[in-house]
Every structure is written in structure tokens, then in C-alpha cells.
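Last lecture ended with a question: if I hand you only a sequence, what can you say about the shape of the protein? Today we answer it with a concrete record. The protein is Type II citrate synthase. Below, first the input exactly as provided, then the predicted structure, then a couple of comments.
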Amino acid sequence: MPNTYVDVSTLSQFADWIATTPPLLHGDEIIVEELPFKTLCAEQMQTYTGNPRLGFIYQHLCEQLFIQHPSLSITTTELQLSDNGRTIGELDFILHNHQHDRTEHWEVAIKFYLLHGDKWYGPNAIDRLDKKLKHMLERQLQHTQSDIFIRQYPQWKDLSQHLLMQGRLYINPFENHTVPTHCEGKRINTSQIVGYWCHQNQAHRIAEKLYRLDKPLWATGRTENSPLLDSIQGKVLHCQSESGRFWFIVPNDWPNNI
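The predicted structure:
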């Protein structure tokens, strides 16, 4: 997969979005609701050249925001956990919290989910909010409790666990939905149910012009250079309307096309 280039202006807007946008879920002892970040000035940003996947850009910006945090310092990032030469997991961040004098394990994710039936599906319908949340809470965040981790990193026992999951939730305005209030027992933040989606055969009912969004703009929205959507092809499209509404347009057989 070739590297992608993201300019400072786009990164700065994305970092501001991360620092100010509420997470997808209300908080508990693990799920983060109160954001720890402060906005960055453009002078603190550098261009990004790397993996084009949105999650990588998001994690990169979280790292920059942690670096600028007055009470948190990064101990390590992307820590590989292996057993007999076999990688069994990777940890996003291990931080030291100077205010509370403790070491913390953080996992971060940006996700976009579309409500179909009673489940929230990713644009790639293999991904679902309930499965992702279960994986993060029961597997990813449990790595630091494992015997393998404690044996390899005895200096980091008793880490506190923190999950930051941001993004956006989408409903289909052309269908009747009962919108779930919870997922895997965790309360959904309804303030983030602000996107719309539809199948391709419903797209003619959208009454506004749409502009296509490149991946780095999925969170923040279109710029003056975003192209007008002039045709709907057989793939998932993420767009924003003239009024600012975010739209996913998906194939007619979605989510059964996996």
C-alpha cells in the first residue's frame, strides 16, 4: 500500500476535531468520555507521509496531542507483544500520568458506523460496533493483564486501561429506525448520531448536491477542493452535502455483500 501525503492544514483541522469531538460512547471506568487533549496550533504540526488508512492518521495525531499534553508523557507507542516469536498483539500507547503518578494503557480508534436493523455496521460490513467494542474491551485492553506482558514488562504492572473511540454514527432517513441506546451494555452518545446513509437506489431522494470526501477529510468534512459527486458507482461513497450533512452511499446489497 503506497504512502499518502496529508498537508498541515488538513492535519491541523483533524487534530482540532479530535480534541473537541465527543466520543461515540458515554464514559465509564475504561471508556474515555472527557477528552484529555488541547487544540494544537498549526506551527506545532508537520506534514504526514505514511499509511493512508484513516486509523493510522488518527493515531499519529493522537500521538501529537499526547506529546503536547502538560500532564501526560508517552512512554512508548505501538508496543509489539510477542510469544515465542509470534506477535499476539500491539498496544497503541503507554503513557505516564504525572498528575496521578500512574502509568496508563490507551487504545484509540476512529470509526464510522451505519445503523441497519439493530446493528451498527462499518462501511465494510465485516466491521460492527458491537464486535469492535467487545474486541477492544475483552482482548485488546486485556493484553497488559496477561502473564506474557507482565513477564516481559514487569515495570508496567497494574496499568490503568483507557479506550478512546471517536467517529460518527449514521442513520438512514428514508427508512424507519428504532435507534439503539446501548451497545454491549455501553450507552451510546446520541450527540454523535449526526450522519445519514442510504443505498444507491435511494440516492436520488437526496435533495442537495454532494461532495466526495477523501479519507483524511472523513472526520472534518469537505474543503473548497472537494469534488462534486457526479456519478454513483458500485462502491461505498462518503460525501458531505452543501448544508454540511455527512452521507454514506452504499451498494444496494450492503451489508450483505461481505
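Comments.
1. The first helix runs from residue 8 to 20.
2. The chain has a mean pLDDT of 95.
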